[in-house]
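Case 304 in the screening queue. Each case pairs one protein sequence with one candidate compound; here the compound is adenosine-5'-triphosphate. For every case the pipeline is the same: read the inputs, emit a complex structure as tokens, and attach any notable structural observations.

Predict complex for case 304.
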Amino acid sequence: MFALDVKRLTKAYDATTVLAGVDIQLAAGEVLCILGPNGAGKTTFISAILGLIKADSGEINLFGELQQGSTRSRALRQQLGVMMQIGNLSANLTVFEQCDLFSSYYVHGYSATELVALAGLEAHSQQRFGRLSGGQKQRLLFALALAAKPNLVFLDEPTLGMDVEARRALWQQVQQLKQQGVAVVLTTHYLEEAEQLADRITVLNQGVVVASGSPAELKALTHYKVIQCESTLTDQALLTLPGVQHLQREHSLCILHSSHAECTVKALLLADDSVRQLEIRSVGLEQAFLQLTQNDTTHKEHAA
Ligand SMILES: Nc1ncnc2c1ncn2[C@@H]1O[C@H](COP(=O)(O)OP(=O)(O)OP(=O)(O)O)[C@@H](O)[C@H]1O
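Case 304 output:
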């Protein structure tokens, strides 16, 4: 049984289609990362699952239970955790008071003291929410999302505004959730975060799933390669090699992005027999993401 099983979900606002038949499945202990440019439909998708908005058509199954309309049963709500946006918490309550309030909603959840510790805010437990730094607020919101000890957690851009250390600490907490068998749906604009955490990435573009797979599978979807070398050729000559789409220079190195790496390398070696330090590698997730979302029609047939 999937923790989450969504089929053909659609949503439009007036004449604008925001979700155009989205299918997503998620098992216990899996981390799914939804990537997509601004306005792709990520928040709308999560809101529809949680019943915050009503989808136009499609099926939403949570723990094997088909959801009708936008109400979610009390028993189901105890299994769900949602990281809210900063503006939804009262600025005047202290960290401990917020944790106490959330703890009181759930019968088998964490105590207020445990939630303060989960947020790593023991030293700030008497500080008002409004006085916390942006990163501390995010840590508290993350802990509050876990108040129920949920089996399925939704994290919408959880590390926004966090410094590197706080971000890595939160990544560790997500890994721990996964080890405990919790299913996690995460949206982020940080591709490194997606690569670190996700078992599976779904790329949404204009409400359509344009690709879905492990980070390695997504990178393999793009046929672009990076060719790195030292060459005496001018920028002009390098850019006219077959397949070259982009050139970047780093000190003595030329870094070429090529859509036809073998042709590029053959032509490069013919044009410059003094080429050194030649290396060919696959593109990173960021390049794959840009290619998938800028030219999604080329990749639709690969969507899993
Ligand atoms: N209540 C609404 N009424 C009309 N249009 C809406 C409404 N809510 C969202 N939209 C539109 O739906 C589209 C998808 O929005 P959504 O917030 O789901 O995108 P997103 O992928 O989460 O974007 P971001 O990365 O910027 O947070 C956008 O074009 C947005 O303007």
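Case 304 observations:
- The first strand starts at residue 4 and ends at 13.
- Residues 13, 18, 36, 38-44 surround adenosine-5'-triphosphate (CB under 6 Å).
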